[in-house]
Amino acid sequence: MKHWKIIHRINIQTTFxxxxxxPILTAGCRAPVDRxxxxxxxxxxxxxxxxxxxxxxxxxxxxxxxxxxxxALVIGAIHGNEPAGFVLADxxxxxxxxxxxxxxxxxxxxxxxxxxxxxxxxxxxxxxQIDLNRNFPTDNRLNNEKFGLQPLSEPESRILYHLIExxxxxxxxxxxxxxxxxxxxxxxEMLARRMALWCPLPLRRIGAxxxxxxxxxxxxxxxxxxxxxxxAEDAALSPSQIWDKYGKAVLDFITFP
Length: 257
What we know:
This protein is an alpha/beta fold. The protein has helices at residues 2-26, 83-99, 116-121, 155-167, 189-196, 213-220, 239-255, and strands at residues 46-53, 59-65, 71-76, 107-111, 171-176, 179-185, 225-231.
């Protein structure tokens, strides 16, 4: 029930906060309008997209900041029993609304909850009892009842796969618990080392796990992919405490050239 309240909060609070902030985001950015000139419609600086639905028909939402330029993708709560990942990703969303008012020179995509059914139930797996982070088409994947009898058997993993294939992010950050380290797949070592300077987590290689998003995106597709493994104790922290602890590292992930 606790996790379902979290999901309910993001659906309502995200929409309300962004809609309320849009006038502020665009204030001072408008040039004088020539009423006789052709009008160009510019999309809002912040957009919410529903990418699809989970097994139990919960929406998987993506918040997009900016329109063009290098794209950074941040994913929280692909494992439902790792709620601190959702909190950190959602707090990043709130920070960007408050601190990036006008034209962004890049795109930032945030999926606060990649496994809403698991987060609602407090379980690692999705509603089909499949580990979504072992369901991707890697060279080393294992087909079984725990990881899926075939790659991308689950709607949630298909949504992430499709987003990465179509939006082509230049870097990916996935937020997990509870191992307390920063890991990377693909050409992400320098970025991971930089992030480790801004938070108490050490750099430690976990390895290319079979069927994981990191292995597929980092090793197969060559996208710098960082896994931010928060600690188990971080689940007890407030959003502001989690941001104080990890916010600078997450912002470095976004801004590092």
